[in-house]
Each structure stands twice: as structure tokens, then as C-alpha cells.
Specification:
It is a single chain. The protein has six helices and eight strands. It has 197 residues and is α/β, with parallel strands linked by helices. It has two domains: 129 residues, Alpha-Beta Horseshoe (pyruvate-formate lyase- activating enzyme), CATH 3.80.30.20; 60 residues, OB fold (Dihydrolipoamide Acetyltransferase, E2P). Strand 4 and strand 5 form a beta hairpin. It is elongated and about 60 Å long. 26% of the residues are buried.
Amino acid sequence: RVMREKKNVCKYMDIALQHISDNMLQRMHRHVTRQETYALIERFREEVPGIHLRTTLMVGHPGETEEDFNELLDFVRKVKFDRMGAFAYSEEEGTYSAEHYEDEIPFETKQARLDKLMALQQKISADLAARKIGKIFKVIIDRSEGEYYIGRTEFDSPEVDPEVLIPVSEGTLSLGTFYEVKITDADDFDLYGTRMF
């Protein structure tokens, strides 16, 4: 509600879901079900139109079957997260998983699953970025590098999310200042824009 009603709150939600398979959620002690997760995402999007969702997922946790992994791929295809990070399970001393499960999934399998998941997300990110071409966003300028000023929209967390690149040839922009920027192009992750005068 606050995100929807307050203009000074970014419409950006970071929620580390880790998995979607009920089997894996139970093994990971996530205290949430597949159905509850889908319902939560639907609620976010209904209550806050235009919200951008970020999540972090894990592959290769002990007990993850091909069926579990395919369910995770299907989840990412359906939800189309605006931002997504992922990592392969590695045993950490003192954790519940390390003490109760054997790390039985081969490294090669974990890496193959991670690569497949990130390749899927790269396609989704490219499609979502392309849909922003022609739209105008409020952008804060963080720095300049070479031929570009580098900025972010309200949907981009510093250092981890895509950036907006604006040619320095368009004139001087002040760091830490907001500008209206029209998106003119996009690649798999970053956006390119021009300042609106």
C-alpha cells in the first residue's frame, strides 16, 4: 500500500525466494509453499502496478531432482522477474543443510543448471528491457564513464542491477541529480537514453 500511495517510495521489491518446488522449499526450511509464493507475487503486481521484482534462486541444493529444477525453470518463465540472481549450492559449515544432507549433486550438474537458468533469465531481461524503448523514466545520475553518464531508474539497485547510459555529448549532467530520460535502445541488461529537455 505504501509503495502504491507514496511517490517517494520506489516500486522495487527484493524477495529471496530460492526455489519454487514444494519438495525443495520443505527441504530448505523456507516455511512457504509453491502456491503461497505464486499468490504473493500476484498480490504484489495487483496492488502495485508497475512494480519491479527481484529475487535470488538456488540450484543444486541436496535432493534437487531434474523435476524440481524443471519446475524452477517453468516458474521463472511464468513470472518473468525483472531482476534475478542465482547461485549453485555449496555446503556451508554450521548450516542446517550441511548438518542434515549430503552434498550429493555433482558440481558439473549444479553448474549446468545454473547456466541454463541464467541463460533463460538473460532472454527475459532482454525482452523486458526492449519493452522500455520509447518510454520516459526518472533517472538519477551516479557517475560518468568514457562517453556516457551512468544512471539508474527507481527499479535499479546500485552496483547489481542494469544501468541507464546517456551520451555525454548531450550536455553536462550533475551527479546525484534526477533527470527525465527517454529510452532509445536496450541490450540484454542495460538501457540507453536521451535526456528530455
